[in-house]
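Standup notes, structure subgroup. Blocker cleared on the adenosine-5'-triphosphate input:
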Amino acid sequence: MIEVKGLAKRFRLPSHKGTPYQLHDPREHDGWFHAVRDVSFRCAPGEVLGLLGPNGAGKTTTLRLLSTALKPDAGSVMANGEDLLADPLAARQRIGFLSGTTGLYGRLTARENIEYFGRLHGMSPPYLKRRCDELFDLLHMHEFGNKRADQLSSGMKQKCAIARTVVHEPQIVILDEPTTGLDVMSSKILLDFIASYKALHIPLIFSTHHLHEVEKLCDRVCIINHGKTAFHGTTKQLRHLGGSADLYDAFISVINHGGAPCGPST
Ligand SMILES: Nc1ncnc2c1ncn2[C@@H]1O[C@H](COP(=O)(O)OP(=O)(O)OP(=O)(O)O)[C@@H](O)[C@H]1O
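Run returned:
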């Protein structure tokens, strides 16, 4: 079980003489931009949680905090009752994090990129080969496995980055906008891949702007607005918010008027 409580992160704003940096953003105070102010949610093993919110709401910052890429100013992330942020190096062994940038080595092939990360995680060559073959099957990567990364299309690169993220069989999977750049068929392959984590009883958290992905996959949803959790609950609870049973209407309603239920224990 992942339990996120009261996460907060601020960034120092560049000093601008005269006018304030962002006049209308309520998150700016005294030279700091409070990108994440109070984010809480939970995700049980076998659940898929969708992190939603308008552009700039704080989704990527939240995911970077969870993955230990950033240190929070406040709040906690507990994994099965243990403080995940207390030992970032150990946490990174347990987490698979797909960030917005693919970060592949252009001169290595798709397979070499994935193997390289597997070796960094201490995987033995036979285990790594088996795992790569398995991921190539699941993500339909055989066609371009031996192509150099700098010669791959953006969708192929994205698949490769996803395979690299999960090569070490992490206990927690965190994906920042994983379907970016994927065509319809590749999106379907990836959505099936995400759904397969339910059977593995591994919590999976992903950010998206696509409500049909939430509809199809998510047991639980957290909507962030202006750096705060505006809604946290099951997809069913979200769907029935406002009574229309439509996720699109419910999302708009949460952003415009706030929403309940909320809080990590919801
Ligand atoms: N390193 C940083 N320094 C200053 N401000 C930052 C930094 N990183 C993020 N921000 C600001 O924090 C806010 C939240 O950014 P974040 O990338 O988390 O949003 P998001 O919800 O992922 O947006 P999108 O849907 O557009 O990807 C934005 O206003 C962004 O400009």
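Discussed briefly. The chain is about 35% helix and 25% strand.
Next: hand off to the docking folks.
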